[in-house]
Amino acid sequence: MAEATELIEASTDISASPEAVWAVVSDLRRMGEWSPQCRKMIVRGNPIGVGTTTININRRGALVWPTRAKVVRYEPNKAIAWRVAENHTVWTYEIEPKGKGVVLTERREAPGGKTTAVSSTLVNALMGGREGFENELRVGMAESLGKIKRAAEA
Length: 154
Fold this sequence. Notes:
By secondary structure, this protein is an alpha+beta fold. It has a single domain, classed as START domain (Alpha-D-Glucose-1,6-Bisphosphate, Chain A, domain 4). The chain has four helices and nine strands.
């Protein structure tokens, strides 16, 4: 196991109902529309729920790589989360009602501040090291949340 920041997260206020935001974030097939890194999620099985698996196509510049994930949390209108097999991180979208809208939080958790040795080696060799890569993830979260906000408020 290798070191990773245990929690990276970002939030945004959205002027839409929990149901409207849920309709956007729970449709994993649309992940490529929101994420600057995960360009496509191929969902295996329907309907989506705990246990659903995905094959994800990720891209950073000319570098393209696949990952696999499994939905580990599925609470309609509240939260969806999946665990990435290759690095053991958990990605979550959580919806909290606030006034006439919601706060949407996106987070990446590396349980115990650890990731796999393979993932760490690739981040260090091909993605500029942990600090730069994790900063890129923070910027990407803000971009994803902005796109989700625009879609949910439309």
